Design the sequence.
């Protein structure tokens, strides 16, 4: 009788059953979707952070920010060799340390010596701005001071300077990181995977070799074995690398010494990558470094996470804020509708239950009947909800909406310093990340559990 | 057989009290047929509820074959209703979603009758009151008179 009665009730009251089941389904589906999307957001943010930090990097040490001095705010200057009759194209590279603020290399050892620091490695970030110019008619003026700023070739010094005239310029800039080839598991290269060729050998501390990010290599059509020039020095590409996740923030990797001489930054680094001995002690280690190594700014990954902005951060805020509230609201509404319909059904059926009791049905048999109905209804709604939620999560993953993330856009430690000049225009700290919505069993359990508690 | 002794029933609604039954003494022997007549609001339904074991009197006793329905436990009362008492309500009180046959079966469920026998007995009963053609009809598909024929069960 239980089964027949149940079947009859559900099939003869399809509309009510459907409304209850749909409300339930919607609630569960929303909880699953919101949950998995925000899990995706968290993953995306993790990816952003990991692509900026090496794996295993717990914090970075950079020079404490200071007020820009008058001299540092001047723009880059390029000098060209302009023979009066020339129609040839020329190029010039302007190499600057990123942010224009460097630390002494000796600080790497001092940071490494701090208690709680497992490992520390220095890296030098450079921005290279390349200007190709083609002059039709250079108006030249004799000047003796040319070539000072690393003009076109060391041998071209003392040439006349261009003062105007018909010239077409092509400016492009890219980023270079000087890495400690003896400690590649920490630092800029740690998150990169070599996809072709090989990485630096520990012996290549001052070799004229380069590892190039795949995206940049593609743009420039570089392959393993290709050569290119930076400020007149020729480098051979030994390897092509892709980031483990996200997009590469650096285009060209060079041995640290090479980068230092290009950037005119002998014995200087811009960033010290630190790995803590104990991940729970990161805050304490940060304090210790800041106290013991003066003039530095220590940025931990949680500091960095706070500076994430852009659509990823907006979407993430949305998912955790609006999304959570939305799913709670829908769940509450679904609960209310279900409760109202159930109580309406019960009061409509008191007479029916009275009849059954008069016929000698024990109360528990009547109760079992009613509970049975809502359980079956719940199972249908729950199943539908899980299916709907999974479908939504799969759709998000399949569509993979692109989100961008900007790091330190408000002038965080990773950003370019004041007067950094063209170094900043490359927007290297903007990443594009595809959103996915991973569904975990706990997510489903949470959704269904929430619903059955309601 | 039934033996009712000084049965009273007082309904209280807020401050208002209604004495629906005032000291009823009544004996109904097995096989007797009894008609109770009276004005509306006279307490007929209240008396039937006492006799049917659907409600308890305020005082007095309602004995059915020696068991006092006024004081016996709920479980025993439920079993007595299933085994010894049949009720036709003023309004038909059928389960609207069940067929005629299934409605009759509901009366046999608490007696522990096996499904196959239950179906058989319900069908036989309905045929005996001329509702053999209506076994699979739901109440809304039957006339008032036909609906009246369904509830008493076996
Ligand atoms: N559940 C109740 N609560 C309060 N008063 C009731 C209740 N049921 C019946 N009554 C009152 O008891 C009296 C008898 O009612 P009832 O037994 O239904 O009369 P009859 O069936 O003879 O018309 C009426 O005055 C009625 O208003
Ligand atoms: Mg009445």
Sequence:
């Amino acid at each position: 009788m239980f089964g027949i009665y149940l079947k009859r009730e559900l099939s003869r009251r399809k509309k009510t059953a459907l409304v209850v089941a749909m409300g339930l389904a919607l609630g569960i589906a929303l909880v699953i979707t919101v949950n998995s999307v925000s899990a995706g957001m968290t993953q995306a943010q993790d990816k952003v952070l990991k692509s900026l930090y090496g794996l295993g990097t717990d914090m970075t040490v950079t020079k404490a920010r200071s007020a820009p001095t008058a001299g540092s705010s001047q723009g880059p200057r390029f000098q060209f060799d302009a023979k009066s009759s020339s129609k040839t194209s020329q190029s010039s590279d302007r190499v600057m340390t990123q942010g224009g603020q460097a630390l002494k290399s000796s600080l790497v050892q001092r940071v490494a010596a701090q208690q709680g620091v497992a490992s520390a490695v220095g890296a030098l970030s450079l921005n290279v701005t390349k200007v190709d110019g083609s002059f039709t008619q250079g108006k030249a003026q004799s000047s003796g001071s040319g070539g000072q700023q690393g003009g076109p070739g060391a041998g071209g010094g003392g040439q006349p300077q261009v003062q105007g005239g018909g010239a077409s310029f092509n400016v492009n800039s890219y980023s270079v990181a000087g890495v400690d080839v003896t400690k590649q598991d920490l630092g800029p290269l740690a998150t990169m995977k070599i996809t072709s060729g090989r990485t630096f050998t520990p012996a290549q501390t001052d070799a004229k070799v380069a590892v190039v990010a795949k995206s940049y290599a593609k743009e420039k059509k570089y392959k393993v074995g290709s050569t290119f020039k930076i400020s007149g020095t020729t480098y051979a590409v030994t390897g092509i690398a892709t980031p483990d996740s996200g997009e590469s923030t650096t285009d060209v990797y060079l041995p640290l010494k090479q980068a230092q001489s290009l950037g005119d930054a002998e014995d200087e680094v811009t960033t010290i990558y630190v790995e803590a001995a104990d991940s729970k002690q990161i805050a304490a280690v940060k304090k210790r470094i800041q106290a013991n190594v003066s003039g530095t700014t220590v940025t931990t990954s949680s500091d960095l996470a706070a500076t994430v902005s852009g659509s990823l951060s907006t979407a993430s805020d949305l998912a955790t804020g609006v999304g959570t509230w939305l799913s709670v609201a829908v769940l509450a509404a679904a609960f209310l509708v279900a409760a109202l319909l159930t109580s309406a059904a019960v009061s409509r059926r008191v007479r029916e239950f009275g009849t059954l009791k008069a016929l000698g049905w024990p109360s528990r048999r009547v109760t079992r009947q009613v509970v049975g109905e809502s359980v079956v209804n719940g199972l249908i709604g729950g199943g539908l909800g899980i299916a709907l939620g999974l479908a939504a999560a799969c759709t998000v993953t399949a569509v993979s909406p692109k989100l961008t993330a900007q790091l330190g856009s408000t002038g965080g430690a990773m950003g370019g310093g004041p007067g950094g000049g063209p170094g900043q225009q490359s927007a290297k700290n903007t990443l594009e990340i595809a959103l996915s919505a991973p569904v975990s069993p706990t997510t489903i359990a949470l959704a269904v559990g929430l619903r059955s508690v309601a | 057989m039934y033996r009712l002794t000084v049965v009273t029933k007082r309904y209280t609604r807020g401050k208002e009290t209604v004495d629906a039954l005032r000291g009823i003494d009544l004996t109904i022997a097995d096989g007797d047929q009894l008609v109770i007549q009276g004005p509306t609001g006279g307490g007929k339904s209240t008396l039937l509820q006492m006799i049917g074991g659907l409600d308890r009197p305020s005082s007095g006793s309602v004995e059915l074959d020696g068991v006092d329905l006024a004081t016996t436990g709920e479980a025993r009362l439920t079993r007595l209703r299933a085994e010894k008492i049949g009720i036709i309500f003023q309004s038909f009180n059928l389960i609207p979603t069940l067929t005629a046959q299934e409605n009759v079966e509901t009366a046999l469920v608490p007696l522990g009758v096996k499904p196959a026998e239950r179906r058989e007995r319900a069908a036989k009963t309905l045929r005996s009151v001329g509702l053999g053609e209506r076994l699979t009809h739901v109440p809304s598909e039957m006339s008032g008179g036909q609906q009246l024929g369904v509830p008493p069960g076996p």
